[in-house]
C-alpha cells in the first residue's frame, strides 16, 4: 500500500466547503526534500495532460535557477488528490496514493515535471524532456537522488505550494469524491484550454476504444502524451459508425446528427458528437465520475473502428492506382500531389510506403462511404460489416464518376473533402459492393 507522510511547511488546517460538498482540502507548501518523496509514489494518471519541456517548464526552470525565493509567490504549485488523508502531529499528513485513477497529481503537472528535471539536472547533469523518462529515472535512481540531495541540500532553497483534496469523514464522502474528482481536475486544467479529447479521456469516453485499439495503434490519448496518432483523428473516424446508428434511429432522439463532411473538415465537431453519445444515460453508466459503456449496439459499432483505420491506410496506398484505372490522366501530375516523395500510411498498419505524398481530402468521401457496408442485426442488437473494408477488393470499386467529379472541381482536395456530391457518390459506390 502506497502511504506517504508529507511534512507541510505551513499550517495543516482543513478547509471545508460552505456548500456542504463532502470534500475537503489542505493548502500549504512542501520542501524539495518532501517533493522528492512525493514523486516516488505519486503519478499524474489522474491529470488529463502530460507535461513535456516547453516554454512553461523553461520559465519555471529559470525561476528555480535565478530567483528560487520567489517560486512560492510565482507558482500555483501542485494539486494532489488522495482518497485517505490522516492528520498527524507537527504539520504532517499521511496520504494514500494507490488508486491511480483517482489519486495523484491532478494539476500542476508542468510544475512537478519542471522541478523534477531541475533536481535531476543539478544532481546528475542529465537532461530529460519527457514525463515518462523523468518518472522512470526517479524510480530507478530514487535512493541515489535522496543521497545526493542530502549532500547538496543548501542548493535547493525554495518552497513548493501544494493543495491536497480528499474526502471528508462523512458517510458517502468517498463516492462523492469519485463523482466529482474528474470534473474538478478538468476545470483546474481549463486555464490552458484543455482539449475536449483530453476531457473526454479523463471521464472515460474513450476507454472502450482504447481497449480494442491500443494493442495495435499508438494513439495519443492525453495532451502531451507520446504516440504517433492523434486521438481526434481516430475519434472522428470512429464517429462514422455512430452516424450509421443515428441514421438507423438507433441512438437517442435528443442526440443531434453529424454530417459526414465533418469527419474530414471539423474533427472538433466529431469529438463533441462522440462525447455526446458516450455521455448519454441510455448509452453509458456513470460510476465514480467515469462513464462506462453499457449499450451493446454502440459497443459493436465501435468494434468496426479497427477496420476503418486499416481501410484508410489501404486507400492511401491504392487510391492513385484506382484513379489511374478510372481515368487516363496521371495522378502524379496533379499540382496538389507530390510525386517526388514517398510517404507512410497515417495509421501505421503497414510499413509499405505510398509512391506519392498527397492530401487525404482526395479520398475522405470514400472512407465515409463505408457506412454503406455496415449492417444492423436487430435480433442480436449488433452492428457488423456486410463486407469488412479491411479485406475489400478495391479493384472492384467503380470510381469513374468519382474521378469525373474530381476534374469538375479542378483537382482541389479541399473541395473534394468538403463536397456533398462526393459523399453521395461514395455511398453509391459502396452500395454496389453487395449487388
UniProtKB/TrEMBL annotation:
Domain annotation Abortive phage infection protein C-terminal: ranges: 54-214
InterPro entries: AIPR_C
Superkingdom as given in the UniProt entry: Bacteria
Pfam families assigned: AIPR (PF10592)
Name recorded for this polypeptide: Abortive phage infection protein C-terminal domain-containing protein
UniProt lineage: Bacteria, Pseudomonadati, Bacteroidota, Flavobacteriia, Flavobacteriales
Amino acid at each position: 500500500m502506497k502511504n506517504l507522510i508529507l511534512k507541510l511547511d505551513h499550517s495543516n488546517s482543513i478547509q471545508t466547503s460552505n456548500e456542504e460538498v463532502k470534500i475537503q482540502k489542505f493548502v500549504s507548501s512542501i520542501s524539495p526534500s518532501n517533493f522528492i518523496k512525493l514523486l516516488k509514489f505519486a503519478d499524474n494518471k489522474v491529470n488529463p495532460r502530460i507535461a513535456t519541456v516547453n516554454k512553461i517548464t523553461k520559465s519555471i526552470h529559470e525561476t528555480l535557477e535565478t530567483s528560487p525565493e520567489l517560486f512560492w509567490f510565482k507558482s500555483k504549485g501542485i494539486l494532489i488528490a488522495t482518497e485517505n488523508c490522516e492528520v498527524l502531529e507537527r504539520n504532517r499528513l499521511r496520504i494514500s496514493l494507490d488508486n491511480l485513477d483517482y489519486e495523484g497529481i491532478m494539476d500542476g503537472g508542468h510544475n512537478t515535471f519542471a522541478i523534477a528535471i531541475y533536481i535531476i539536472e543539478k544532481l546528475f547533469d542529465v537532461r530529460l524532456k519527457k514525463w515518462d523518462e523523468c518518472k522512470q529515472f526517479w524510480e530507478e535512481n530514487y535512493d541515489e537522488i535522496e543521497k545526493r540531495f542530502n549532500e547538496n541540500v543548501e542548493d535547493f532553497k525554495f518552497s513548493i505550494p501544494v493543495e491536497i483534496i480528499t474526502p471528508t469523514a462523512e458517510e458517502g464522502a468517498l463516492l462523492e469524491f469519485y463523482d466529482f474528482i474528474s470534473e474538478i481536475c478538468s476545470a483546474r486544467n481549463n486555464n490552458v484550454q484543455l482539449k475536449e479529447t483530453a476531457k473526454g479521456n479523463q471521464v472515460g469516453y474513450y476507454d472502450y476504444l482504447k481497449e480494442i485499439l491500443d494493442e495495435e495503434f499508438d494513439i495519443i490519448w492525453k495532451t502531451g502524451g507520446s504516440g504517433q496518432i492523434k486521438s481526434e483523428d481516430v475519434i472522428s473516424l470512429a464517429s462514422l459508425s455512430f452516424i450509421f446508428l443515428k441514421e438507423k434511429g438507433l441512438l437517442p432522439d435528443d442526440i443531434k446528427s453529424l454530417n459526414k463532411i465533418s469527419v474530414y473538415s471539423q474533427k472538433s465537431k466529431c469529438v463533441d458528437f462522440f462525447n455526446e453519445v458516450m455521455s448519454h444515460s441510455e448509452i453509458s453508466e456513470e460510476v465514480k465520475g467515469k462513464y462506462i459503456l453499457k449499450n451493446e449496439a454502440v459497443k459493436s459499432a465501435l468494434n468496426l473502428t479497427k477496420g476503418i483505420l486499416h481501410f484508410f491506410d489501404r486507400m492511401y496506398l491504392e487510391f492513385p492506382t484506382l484513379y489511374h484505372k478510372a481515368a487516363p490522366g496521371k495522378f502524379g501530375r496533379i499540382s496538389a500531389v507530390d510525386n517526388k516523395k514517398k510517404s507512410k500510411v497515417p495509421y501505421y498498419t503497414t510499413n509499405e510506403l505510398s509512391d506519392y505524398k498527397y492530401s487525404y481530402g482526395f479520398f475522405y468521401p470514400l472512407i465515409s462511404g463505408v457506412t454503406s457496408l455496415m449492417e444492423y442485426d436487430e435480433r442480436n442488437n449488433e452492428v457488423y460489416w456486410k463486407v469488412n473494408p479491411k479485406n475489400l477488393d478495391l479493384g472492384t470499386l467503380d470510381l469513374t464518376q468519382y474521378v469525373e467529379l474530381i476534374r469538375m472541381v479542378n483537382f482541389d482536395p479541399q473541395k473534394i473533402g468538403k463536397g456533398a456530391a462526393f459523399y453521395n457518390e461514395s455511398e453509391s459506390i459502396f452500395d454496389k459492393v453487395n449487388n
